[in-house]
Design brief:
alpha+beta, about 15% strand, 2 domains, Thioredoxin-like fold domain-containing protein, Glutaredoxin, 4 helices, globular, four-stranded mixed β-sheet
Length: about 140
């Protein structure tokens, strides 16, 4: 059984983190069974970030690396029946989302003052609720 370590769900999404959504969606499409562990402690994460998985006793990080490793080790490729043209379109679409849409998301999240304040409060509540803060 694979354990998927990810950020918590929020706003009707399976996770607040796009890479976590990407990996979990792929696991569902590939019909691979997994358990979910919502984590706030990234010290266990092999790359210091989420998502990561525990697979046969090994911790593996980075959603893209995880997907490629599972394709190889489990012999599962949801894209196996696509034509070469469809595979090229799929790759182009993934890269567009990952490399270009990301910057739009960052702009919306951090450069629009009201959005950043909401997101900052959400992260504080999710990851630091109950933590003590240093006295000023």
């Amino acid at each position: 059984m694979i354990t998927l370590y990810k950020a918590p769900p929020l706003w009707g999404l399976p996770s607040i983190s796009p890479p976590c959504i990407k990996l979990e969606t792929w696991l569902r499409i590939a019909n691979i069974a997994y358990d979910i562990e919502i984590t706030k402690d990234f010290t266990k994460a092999p790359k210091g970030k989420i998502p990561f998985i525990e697979y046969k006793g090994e911790l593996i990080g980075d959603s893209t690396i995880i997907i490629e490793m599972l394709k190889e080790k489990e012999g599962i490729d949801p894209d196996r029946d696509l034509t070469s043209t469809e595979k090229a379109i799929s790759l182009a679409f993934r890269r567009m989302l990952k490399e270009n849409t990301y910057w739009g998301e960052m702009y919306i999240r951090y450069n629009i003052e009201d959005n950043w304040q909401l997101f900052k409060q959400t992260l504080t509540t999710l990851y630091f609720a109950g933590s003590s803060t240093p006295e000023s």
